[in-house]
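User: quick one - fold this with adenosine-5'-diphosphate bound?
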Amino acid sequence: LSQRLDVVNPRDEIGRLAETFNTTLARLENSFNRTRRFSADVSHELRTPLTILRGEIEVGLKWAKEPEEFRELMQSNLEEVHRMSGIIESLLELSRAEEKGLSLNLQEVDLRELLNDLIQQLRTMADEKGIHLEFAGALPVLVQGDRVRLHQVFLNLLGNALKYTESGGQVRLFLETENGYAKVGVSDTGQGIPADDISCIFDRFYRVDKARNRAHGGSGLGLSLVKSYTEAHGGRIEVASEVGKGSTFTVYLPIADGLPAGDSGEVDKP
Ligand code: ADP
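Assistant: Sure. Structure tokens for the protein plus adenosine-5'-diphosphate:
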């Protein structure tokens, strides 16, 4: 596949044809490579929990005697099974979104309420880690959205912000409106993302620091889902980050016609 046609004269018809052929071939090659890498990644991600499961079942059958030992092993087995189910569920969601088959359960959602609930949910985790968590969003902002998926979007972003920020740091969530869009930002004072990695972090299974993040329990699918769900709502996501200083992820979601837009009450058409 890596062979190319020689372009003798790029201006004549044969030359142009050869160039088109070469470009198409390069695209195909790219797509094959991505598919190959994806299959390797899926296999790898599922093999790790399977290896743990197999080891524990073998230990249980061979060595465990007391009911308590069995219980502990079963508990750990269950965690690995949950992990695998989570990976498969996320992959199914991503492929549905790619084939435009994601059916959103649309309803009127007040983002302020949704984000407030999330903050309550994550407060204990932030306190335990010694991270100052705050929410700035004074007014309701209504969008047409799938409550469950939107909850997942902001849970993943806040979860990451807490995960990649050290004790003593800050995580700030804000909700505003801008040109007909609800603008939700998740800002942290954490480790930041190197410039070279930023364009890849939304790829499936991509992690900046492979070894460390596996220990954190992440699958590398969170941000892929965040992006897919946001785009399925007609929105977009932006990220700004600096190593050692922190990151800000900003999600823009269109405010539906006829719904109040919070501060201005009027919205410009995007
Ligand atoms: P994971 O399950 O590994 O967290 P994600 O898809 O959510 O996977 O994120 C992909 C990678 O992007 C992470 O492994 C991490 O390296 C990086 N990342 C995401 N959010 C942040 C953040 N707030 N600060 C620093 N790095 C981040």
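One thing worth noting: Strands lie at 106-110, 132-136, 142-146, 170-178, 181-188, 236-242, 246-254.
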